[in-house]
């Protein structure tokens, strides 16, 4: 598995529609699902929860849970559905997640996490890696000690990689949003641990605002994971295949990514998906460039029209290109 660049699992954001859209910008970046609980995977509507397009590979399934056998069963199901990796969430600080005894609170129980990873590895084929996403510590833990202790304990169970969000998580006193922004970043700690334990595969997450920042921060590590920037400003991924993975294919333009997405949109609309669920992921595509406001308005208003369909996207693209031409600007294609 090539982990040099990945897009973080983000609840409410990295659904199957978003992932297909991102494939129009980057073919090689590793993508992750939203976190799914073991109960949902085992007992829920699997087609709705686990279904994905073949276009989305390479694709990892992130699981939330703390019971080894339940995680093993959910991992087995995920591998059977064709996911390329199974990831255990030990980083989410939300109260709802804590109440289920999973997410970041598991940083306090590295022995249990090791048991979970061991059970998951035994449940999936050898070619499907099991990985862990974690923080550098929680609450009053000292990150210098907590991260090393956690990694050492869990590494004994044989995970293929750790993705480290380089901030502490405060389980009380900070909201999930504040936990993504308030605790200070400590990229240097992750790099120091990698220097001490070169055998560990460590991917850095947290505060990486664009492709250049991700590449620079990953120096000396095994990769970088971009979070909100990949959703809010998705075009930052357009050069990933060339700059990170050495691909020689042309860098896609914004309009190229939209056109690549259209057949999928048509298919999903035919299956009953609402247009807004498919277009909301595209709102940031023209962020920071002329036509961005027009693009957002055209998609937002168009998706609300009765009977709105594929024409909303093609019309929005035409309007943006015409506006750029009137202003004497080159095509954004």
Helices, strands, pairings?
Elements: E1 5-7, H1 16-23, E2 30-32, E3 36-37, H2 38-43, H3 46-50, E4 59-64, H4 68-80, E5 85-90, H5 95-99, H6 110-123, E6 130-135, H7 143-155, E7 161-165, H8 176-179, H9 187-196, E8 202-205, H10 211-217, E9 223-226, H11 228-232, H12 240-243, H13 254-270, H14 275-279, H15 292-303, H16 311-326
Helix pairs in contact: 1-13, 4-6, 6-7, 15-16
Here the CATH topology of the largest domain equals TIM Barrel
Number of domains: 2
Give the class from helix and strand content and strand pairing: alpha/beta
DSSP, total strands: 9
Distance between the termini: 31 Å
CATH architecture of the largest domain: Alpha-Beta Barrel
The biggest beta sheet reads: 8 strands, parallel, barrel
Shape: globular
Assign the CATH class of the largest domain: Alpha Beta
Strand order of the largest sheet: 1-2-4-5-6-7-8-9
State Rg.
Answer: 20 Å
Which key terms come to mind for this protein?
single chain, 333 residues, TIM Barrel, Four Helix Bundle (Hemerythrin (Met), subunit A), 2 domains
């Amino acid at each position: 598995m090539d982990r040099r660049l990945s897009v973080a699992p983000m609840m409410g954001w990295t659904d199957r529609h978003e992932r297909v859209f991102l494939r129009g910008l980057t073919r090689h970046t590793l993508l992750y699902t939203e976190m799914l609980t073991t109960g949902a995977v085992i007992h829920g509507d699997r087609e709705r929860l686990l279904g994905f397009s073949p276009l989305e590979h390479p694709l990892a399934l992130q699981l939330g849970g703390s019971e080894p056998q339940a995680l093993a069963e959910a991992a087995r199901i995920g591998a059977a559905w064709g996911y390329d990796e199974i990831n255990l969430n030990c980083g989410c600080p939300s109260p709802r997640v804590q109440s289920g005894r999973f997410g970041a609170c598991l940083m306090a129980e590295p022995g249990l996490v090791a048991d979970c990873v061991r059970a998951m590895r035994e449940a999936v084929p050898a070619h499907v890696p099991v990985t862990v996403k974690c923080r550098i510590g929680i609450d009053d833990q000292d990150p210098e000690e907590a991260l090393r202790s956690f990694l050492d304990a869990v590494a004994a169970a044989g995970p293929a990689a750790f993705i480290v969000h380089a901030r502490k998580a405060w389980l009380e006193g900070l909201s999930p949003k504040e936990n993504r922004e308030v605790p200070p970043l400590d990229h240097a700690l992750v790099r120091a641990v990698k220097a001490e334990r070169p055998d560990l595969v460590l991917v850095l997450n947290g505060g990486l605002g664009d492709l250049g920042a991700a590449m620079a921060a990953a120096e000396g590590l095994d990769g970088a994971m971009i979070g909100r920037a990949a959703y809010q400003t998705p075009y930052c991924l357009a050069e990933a295949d060339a700059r990170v993975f050495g691909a020689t294919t042309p860098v896609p333009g914004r309009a190229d990514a939209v056109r690549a997405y259209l057949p999928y949109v048509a298919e999903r609309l035919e299956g009953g998906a609402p247009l807004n669920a498919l277009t909301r992921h595209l709102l940031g595509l023209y962020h920071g460039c002329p036509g961005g406001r027009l693009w957002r308005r055209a998609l937002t208003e168009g998706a609300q029209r009765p009977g709105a369909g594929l024409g909303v996207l093609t019309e929005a693209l035409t309007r943006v290109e015409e506006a750029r031409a009137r202003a004497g600007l080159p095509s954004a294609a």
